[in-house]
Automatic annotation (TrEMBL):
Keyword Membrane: yes
Domain TonB-dependent receptor-like beta-barrel: 247-578
Originating organism: Acinetobacter stercoris
Taxonomic placement: Bacteria, Pseudomonadati, Pseudomonadota, Gammaproteobacteria, Moraxellales
Protein name in the entry: Vitamin B12 transporter BtuB
Signal peptide: 1-26
Classification via PANTHER family: COLICIN I RECEPTOR-RELATED, TONB-DEPENDENT OUTER MEMBRANE RECEPTOR
Length: 609
């Protein structure tokens, strides 16, 4: 590590996080949370086009730009762990394997998108989310529930999409955050915009000594990465174009049954987007993308190189044929190549056609869609969705939706090479049907209440176990059911957000819970923010998972504070896991288990012009 942490860093972080700051500069600052709340949140994931979140007939949550920028060193698993409806299991700290379960669905049932591009890997049924850099991300959208009509395979549980920033004003900036464990991240960036044309560039470097990740081993697992992103584009009334490239690469240590291991990684995204307005009511959008994920085990018992390369074209036409109705028709082609260098190399193609209708008038919002997708290896699948939201009173709305989805096995699950584990060429695609009912209620004094109940039935669920020597196989049926109840309050500069989620995911053959899904889930965020300085304290609590792996529940507290000294200088501090809670995340062997990261205190500065 090149940066050494001084004891005063923790003192400074605690001082700022507890709110011990001087008088603030009050001009030209970031809007406070209560001011920002008055602005309608725009989302795109639920329907592939922009719409106000209050009109979406589904449960969708957003991690906004201000939350992402609280701590540049925060990785995607950490941010997602603050959503009660999600269970995030990570075997340690930075760079360690992480899985995300939406409403109890398998990790493979979560589709990850990066500006619309599929970012799941195909050698194993998961995604390298700890290796995604968030430097240029403005918003993370989490759609809970099936979305195969819009996106095809993998979206049985839901979709998590990273949406990058687009320049809105000219600026240059640098951000530095440093803290305990020799943790350090620096970012430099510039935005240019003129007459509808824009350009953006970001560069970042991150290093940390890491954490102890196995309970009976003192050794730490270090992590480092560096990367860049660049985007150019133009936005005119009748047409638009953008091109972006981003790359993130680095190195991480890890331990497998106590043995020290290490890997190098690279993930790279190319994205070209075009929009053309034939008329005010007829708009054509096309995206041409390529995503590469390279994972090279350079130290360990079984060196290997796991690569996924995906190329995708998505083109659609949106026709607003009345002021209150539109139809979206599109086609999507995906070619996925997966290889374990020296063992196997295989690819798969899918071609899908989707049709979606939306209606919005007088407090009634509906969405209906159908998709037909032809998979080169697993044939044709047809899925559909029907959803609606009704505004009963100006402050009360209810919604319901029903949808089917599917997931085809990835290449790594069907390959049967001698040096590759788990493959089963007889696997069948999973199919599901989901039902959901929810409400949103606004009260006086900035109070909002919301809730949802849901159930998903899955046929041919793909699993692996020690009994089958970790070979994948299908089980007949599984059921996911649960409920969510949330409460939001914003008044003047005070805010409070809290949510409770009950999740039950079970194998219908045995009536046992599937592993690593706690039934009780709770999160709370409380703070004060006037746009000049603010303080946020958050709590994440998870109950014990009702399975045979003996992973108990836990609760952690985090704190964030910032001070916008003037329009060009901002300082901030973060304390993760304030109580230094040492809790299990997964079983390692009979005598040890993986543990979560302990306390990390950091301070940082942003200088912009």
């Amino acid at each position: 590590m090149s940066i050494k942490f001084q004891p005063t860093t923790l003192v400074g972080a605690i001082a700022i996080a507890m709110g011990f700051t001087s008088a603030a500069f009050a001009d030209d600052q970031t809007p406070s949370k209560d001011t920002a709340a008055k602005l309608s949140t725009i989302v795109v994931t639920a329907s592939k086009s922009e719409e106000k979140i209050e009109n979406v007939p589904a449960r969708i949550s957003v991690i906004d730009e201000s939350t992402i920028q609280q701590s540049p060193i925060a990785d995607l698993p950490y941010l997602l762990s603050k959503e009660a409806g999600l269970t995030v299991k990570q075997t340690g700290g930075y760079g360690q394997t992480a899985s995300v379960f939406i409403r109890g669905a398998n990790a493979s049932h979560t589709l990850f998108l990066n500006d619309g591009m599929r970012s799941n890997i195909a050698t194993v049924a998961s995604t390298n989310i700890p290796l995604f850099d968030l430097t240029d991300i403005k918003q993370i959208e989490i759609l809970k529930g099936p979305a195969s009509v819009q996106y095809g395979t993998d979206a049985i549980g839901g979709v998590i999409q990273l949406i990058s920033q687009t320049p809105t004003k000219n600026k240059v900036f640098t951000t530095i955050e440093t803290g305990e464990k020799n943790t350090y991240k620096s970012i430099i960036g510039a935005d240019l915009i003129k007459d509808g044309y824009y350009a953006q560039i970001r560069g970042q470097r991150f290093e940390t000594d890491g954490d102890q990740i196995i309970s009976n081993l003192d050794r730490k697992a270090g992590f480092d990465q560096k990367g860049y992103s660049a985007k150019i584009g133009m936005e005119k009334e009748s047409f638009g174009f953008s091109g972006e490239i981003k790359e993130n690469k680095g190195h991480s240590d890890y331990f497998s049954y106590g043995a020290p291991e290490a890997y190098d990684f690279i993930n790279r995204l190319y994205n070209l987007k075009a929009r053309f307005n034939f008329t005010n009511n007829l708009v054509w959008n096309t995206r041409l993308s390529q995503f590469e994920d390279q994972y090279n085990v350079v130290k360990g018992s079984f060196p290997s190189i796991l690569n996924t390369k995906q190329q995708e074209i998505d083109s659609n036409l949106k026709w607003q044929f009345t002021p209150n109705q539109n139809i979206l028709f599109g086609t999507q082609f995906n070619n996925t190549k997966a290889e374990n260098i020296g063992n196997f190399s295989s690819d798969n193609e899918t071609l899908g056609y989707y049709l979606q209708h939306q209606y919005l008038k007088d407090g009634v919002s509906t969405q209906a869609g159908i998709r037909v997708e032809d998979n080169q290896q697993f044939g044709t699948h047809t899925v559909g969705q029907l959803a609606g939201r009704l505004l009963i009173t100006p402050t009360t709305s209810i919604y319901t939706n029903v949808g089917t989805a599917f997931r085809a096995p990835v290449v790594g699950q069907i390959i049967t090479e001698p040096s590759w584990w788990g493959g089963n060429p007889d696997l069948k695609p999973e199919k599901s049907i989901s039902y959901e009912l929810g409400f949103d209620q606004k009260f006086n004094y900035g109070l909002n209440l919301y809730g949802s109940i849901y159930q998903t039935k899955i046929d041919n669920l793909m699993v692996s176990s020690a009994i089958t020597e970790w070979k994948y196989y299908n089980i007949d049926k599984a059921t996911l059911s649960g409920a969510e109840l949330g409460f939001k309050w914003q008044l003047n500069h005070w805010f409070l957000n809290t949510e409770y989620a009950y999740i039950r995911s079970k194998n219908d053959n045995t009536d046992e819970d599937t592993p690593n899904r706690p039934r009780q889930n709770f999160n709370l965020s409380l703070g004060w923010d006037n746009g000049v300085y603010g303080l946020t304290t958050s709590l994440v609590a998870k109950g014990r998972a009702h399975d045979t792996r003996s992973v108990p529940g836990y609760a952690t507290i985090d704190m964030n504070a910032y001070w916008q000294i003037n329009p060009n200088i901002k300082t901030f501090a973060n304390i993760r896991n304030l109580g230094d809670v040492n809790y299990k995340t997964a079983v390692n062997d009979l005598n040890s288990y993986y543990i979560a990261s302990d306390r990390l205190a950091t301070i940082g500065f942003t200088f912009s012009y």
